[in-house]
Structures are given as structure tokens and as C-alpha cells.
Fold:
Amino acid sequence: MKRILVLIMTMLALWGCQEPGTEKGEPWPAITKESKPWTYWWWMGSAVDKSNLTYNLTQLQTGGFGGVHIIPIYGVKGEEENFIPYLSSEWMDMLDYTLDEATRLGLGVDMTIGTGWPFGGPQVTAEMASERVHTFVTTLQGPSELTLNVIDSVRSTLNRRHSDEQLWQIAAIRAYADHEKQVDLFSLIENDHSLVWKPEPGSWTLVALVTETPVQQVKRAAPGAEGNVLDPFSVDHLQSYLDRFDQAFASSDGGTVRSFYHDSYEYYGAEWTDDFLEQFKQRRGYDLNDHLLEFAGESESENAKRIRSDYKQTIAELHAEYILRIAEWSHTKGSLLRNQAHGSPTNLLDTYAAADIPEIEIFGAPDLDIPGLRREEGFIREDLTDPAMLRFSSSAAHVAGRNLVACETCTWLSDHFRVSLSQVKPQVDLLFLNGINHIVYHGVAYSPRDAIWPGWQFYASTSFAPTNTIWYDIQSLNAYVARCQSVLQAGKPDNDILVYFPVWDIWHHNSHKPLGLQVHNIENWLLETPFYENVTELVTNGFTFDYISDDQIARSAVEQGEWKTEGNRYKLLVVPDCRFIPETTMQNIAGQIEKGAQVLFVDTLEKKVPGYLQHAERQAKMDQLVKSLADNETDKMKLAVDLSKALDNRGIQREKITDHGIDFIRRKINDGRTYFIANQQSIPLHDWVELSFPAKSVLIMDPLTGKYGQAKLKTGKNSCSVYLDLEPGKSLVLKALNHKVATNPWTYLNPQADAYIIDGEWSVRFLKGGPTLPSLLKIRKLESWTSFNDTTNWFSGTAEYKIMFRKPEVNSNHWILDLGSVRESARVFVNGDSIATLWSIPFQIPLIEKLKPGENELVIQVTNLAANRIRYLDTMGVPWKKFHNINFVNIHYQPFDASVWDPAPSGLLGPVKLIPATIRSD
Structure:
């Protein structure tokens, strides 16, 4: 009962559309543990103890984290006696303790239902394991007798030896003559898989489907959790897998996990399930056995493609039901489900929406042209950071009414220990702009207090651990994320357009293998499609939209001429140019048009029905429906050649901020709209920008500092314009309200042409870090501290730069302090007062009435990357890489070696400048 009550309370918090309460007098929503960033938290070998669990959790809470996601994985060499078997009574005791401590500290806890990835373990027998299907095709001439062992023939073709751990089965076998006559040979198969058959005279083609299981072991499994990967197409096998967790949690008396977790679809080789033929017949209405030659052969006929599309649809449905069952099971435990749908062979929109918290992942660095943003060769992955891909998870959430959209963030953003906070921000901003509002860093490894630096580490991540030097200023990053997410979790998405996702075009390609819709292969299924071209045009031109699936269309309604889904309302549906669409979907769309909903078909109305069964008859009905729509084109249904122009003609307002190269996302709140905007281009914005909302007041809110003020505003009948200053790399929140507010005006600083360089003698005192602490230095030229001496060459940590300077003889109380090049973050103090922590581009801060006449003291505490200290360890042969399984590798999965690196520039490189400014009054 306790867990059910917790579930109800949690769902009300996460699914509700009410805004979080705000602090008194503040426009920022209150910060919650959900609005703070979370982190993947790897338990290496599950070698955890209560004292260090408290130590780890306390550090994370102090660093500004909102929660952790437990993933047990392989262990650390030398710690074997401390390994705790997964789900043992001792392991569950550690989980209970973690839940209690997290509650005490105000943190949340998620956990994977398994270890490593994907699902699997010792309870997964060969019969329950993931299954591959092989096609065997051979020709023969009757009436010569055929004698062969089908399994041995397949193994021989694959050059695969016999394994006692594997099960090989013949799922189906038929012989065909002239593509018409066929003979089912399944009853002739002996127990040893041999076949003796004498065909009638003529040419015959024999086709067999042979299954192999298991095909994969759990990757990066924790001790006690090694084993086969689970069949992802069987709810029955899933239930057997979950029995082990039911038993473990039955003895647990601790708190409740917020969410259980299913990782991205990496069931490699999974293509079949033991009752697939029965499932196919039940769902598709015909027997796949009757069409083995078309399914498994080399035919490129239209019928063959349709049959293979039916196979993919069946696989998709089976896996979608698998995910739904995980969600149902999670709810019985008083928890939610967080799921990464990408990679699966499903309609991603439905599979993301099946979870309470859909989660996407981003891999590598986005290709952004922000001046000063460092991008390492080999880590820029435009394909893996594409906005069109990122929007699948957020669209599913928006349409289905899920409030949180998570993202596995900063995986391989750069090489190990070479990621700066300034590189994290543009990626996080990109996620915010595409509807993600629940950042989960990838990540932090549990590490005991006495572990030698750099502590325990996971190989595939950006380390956000306290042992990394970026931790010194991580509170500032996390405060920024929390402010942004407090806004992006409040209210509801405010998107005008639904865009139909034509998954059937993807399924209708000539392959009898399921196609996983991965983040890593969008060139195979997303790029260069009409759908992609349409959504890219919408983004570029400032239209707001979400994707929608066939099933979501079927569950939609029409209210007051708008499309109403489970989670939102939209003004119009766009159907991209696509070849295939189910007749049921077209009927649903036509029905909604009759009820007053607006629809734009791009380029053409002509559509083909997918699938094989009675497709000619179904196509005839489709053609009749299409003709009826074409003959009765009305204001509610139009054919669009120029999509943007057609939307404009339909009264769909766009946000003209994109004309300035600025990206945005918009949400609806009780008293207006909020906009998160970011300048991810190379030029600044200093201009009036029109908003589509006719606000009476607009607040400018800076999530870096928490400061806010009333914007300069020009009001219109159906819109308003605000004046914005936005340098490259900067982001702001705009709160457009439908009433006037009495708030101080936003300070617009207008920098003057002259800049004064602060130079002279700097004292450099090294505060913390290693491998050894360098001595105090006096310098007159700002350059990388790696050039100072041998000790500073290896040093990673924090150094304090101090200088006395005279205030320039300029009649101004308003200045901008520009630190120039900072490697990597800086805490700024003027005359003993803490001014700001600068960790993102640009490294500038206003100094309004902070300078006094005559002498002033400037202190800048600069923290560099951990790269130079890691380079020292590898150069000196210090054995810090001591992990089982894959140990520690680079992005190419080769042994990691930092000894080949050049020194990473470090410290205050400058030049440090004072720029006089005036308050803009125009």
C-alpha cells in the first residue's frame, strides 16, 4: 500500500500540468530534485559499503545533483573480496540503505532492472534468451532424393561450430516449384534435424528458417548477474525474468525507487521469438509459412516487400508490448519507468510514450560555430546530435502528456578528462531547445573515500565525479541546469503543429531483418526523407511542432477545431510526402477533418496501404478515400506544395526569432508563455525580436545568474517585440505575461569602443590539485601555466591569480570584465567581494558600481582540466586503470593512453580587459 501511495503521489507530481510553486517575489519556479540534474551512478562490482554510500551521496547533494541512477557493472581489480552478488540479501540491504540516505538528503534514486545492458542474467535460460533467425535456401532437381541435416548445413554456411550452450531449431521449412506449388516439409524433420525427401520431378527451391539462441551475453555485467540476454519480444519470458526481482524486492523494507530503467535497445541479433509464427498469423491474418520464399529469398517483388513489412510490424508490436509490461511491473512496485526507445525496431513515438519518463541519448559533440568553443577532432558527431532525432522523445512525451523528458547526456563529449564545463553548456542548451527537460549526466562512478586519485572510473562517459577538476565549479553548472529545467518543467508544451511520422516507409524496404531506429544510424532511416526535410524547414522558419504516430492519431479527438491528444492540443496536422500509410490512419484523419480539424498534406494525397493481406482490396478503399478528400478540398484540408507558405496562409504563427539565427522552445503557463532561447551561432544578437504572443510584460531571466528584469517592449495586436542582447554561447529565459508587472527594468549594457587591458605583475598561488602543488609564482605575461616549469606542466587543479590595478580615468560606473581565454573556469573576486563564477562562453561579467577610484584588487581562481595530471600518471606508468572487463578505453574502444597527449593549455590566458559601458536607453 505504501508503494502504491508513493506511486500516485509521484505520478501526480510528474504528469500534472500545474506549475511548481515559486519562491516569494521570484519569477523563477521553485527548484526541486527533478529540476536539478541527475547522474548515472555506476556501482563497480557492487563493492559498496554504507559509510562510502553516505559519502558519495553527500558529495553529489552538495554538488547540486537531484538524484542518482544506480547501474551495477563489472568491478575493480583488487576489490574482489568486496564484490556483492547482485540482488543478494546484502545487495538489497545496500539498496535499502541508499534509498533511505537519498531521502534524508533530498535526492531521488532510479535503478536499472539488471546490470550493464541490455536485460539478462543468470535466470535467463537458453529458452528465454534472445533469438536470431537464419534463412537457408537451396535448389534441387526432382526426383533425385535429398538428404541433408538442415542445422549442420546452416552452421556450415555460417562457419559456426556446434556449441552445447546453444539451441538450434528449425522454425519452418518448405519447398517450392515454379513459385506456386509448395510442400511443407516440417513433419519430415527428424529429431537430429535431418531431412530425407524425394521431390516430384522438376526444379525446386527449399527454404528453411533456422533459429539460434542465445546470441548475446549481458554487456558489462556485475558480479552475480552474468548470463544470457533476454528475448525482447516475449512478455512471458520477461515475466520469468522479473520473477527474480519480485523475490528480491519482497524481502526489501526500504524506500521506493523513483523509476526503474530500460536502456537503449541493444539486443544485438534479436530477430525472432519462439512463438513468432503463431503471433504473426494472429496479428497479420495469414500464415508466414505460406510465403517463406518471398520472405526469406532474394525476391524484390512488391509482395515480398509487403510481407517483410508485416514481419517488421509484428516485431515492433511484440517489443512495444514488452516495454508496456515493464511499465506495468514498475507501477506495481510503486515506481515509474524510464525508457530509452531508440535503437528498437518499433515506431519510436509509441515506445517512448509507453514510459513514464521517455529518455533519449546524445553521443559526441554537436557541430556548433560558437567562437571559442573547443571541439576535438573525432568527437564532433552532427549525426548523433541531430535535433530531428532528439525530438522523438520529447514529441512522444508532449503528445502523451508526460511531463519529464530525460536525456543521457555528455557521453563521449570529448576524450576522458578533457571535457570542460564550457563544452557541456552548448550540448545541454541544444537538448533544452528540443524539448528535453531532465538532464541525466553520463556520469559518475561510485568511488570510496580512500581510493587513490582519480578514483574508480567508467570507460564510456564524461566524468562528473568529485575527483575530476571540473567538480570545483560544478555547482555553477548544476545551478544553471536547475534554473532552466525549473522553467522547462513548468506549465505545458506550447506547440502548434503535429507532424505525422511515416514509419511504414521505413519498414517497407527490401530486408527481412528488423531495422533498429538508432541514434547512431539516422542516415539509414531519417536523413534525406521528406519527413526530415519538412521538420528541418519547420525548425528553420520558427514553427513549433511535435511528431505523432498512427496509434496516437487513432486516440486523438477534436475540440473547437483543434487536435486534442492525451497530453496536449494542436492547431493543425501535417502529413509529409510518404508512400505508405495505413488505411485506418487515413480514415481517422478524414474523420477528424469532418469534425473540424485542420490537415495539410505535403505535395501529394496519393498513398499506398502497407502490408500484404488483401492489399489490393484495401488499396481500392484507400483510393476512394483519397479521391473523396481531393474532390472535397476545404479550408480544413489542403494540399501544400510550399509548407511554410501554406502554414502562414492557415494562420499558424511562427516565431520570428529564428530569422536572427536564434533557437527557442516555448511553453504555456497560467499567465502567459515562457521561452528558452540560445544563441548557438557565431554572431551576437543586438536587436528587436518579435514574439508571436501579445504580451503586456516580458521578463528577461538569466539562468546563469538568476537575475531578471523587465524587457524593453513594443506591444502589438497579435504579437509583441522585445529588445535582446545575446552573445554567442549565451542563453536566456523570456517570461511573456498577459498582465503588467512591477519589476525593475532589465539592465542593457552598451559596451564602448575602448577596452583597457589589466596588466602588470600577477601573483599565481596554487590552491589545490596534483600530482604536486607548485610554488608561488610572479608573472607579467598571461600564458598557459604548463609553460612555467616542470611542476606546473603536469598540474591539474586550481590556481589563484591576483593583481592590483588602477581604475581607468573614465567617467563610468558601469564596466564589463572580460577575462579573454580561460582554461577552464574562473571564480572572480573584486576588492574582496565574490562577483561570479565564470564557466561558460563568453567569459565576461558586468561590474556595476564595483570599482573604486584608484587601486583595486582583482583575484581570479582558475581551474583547469584533469588532463595534465592523467597525462602524468600514464607517462610515469602509474597503474590507475585497474578495472575488469573492458578496463578503460578510448572512444574507438582501444586501450586509453594519455601519455601521448600534448599538455592541455591551463589557467588564465587572457588578455583580461575592462570595457566601459553605458546603460542602453533607446
Observations:
- DSSP finds 20 helices and 46 strands in the chain.
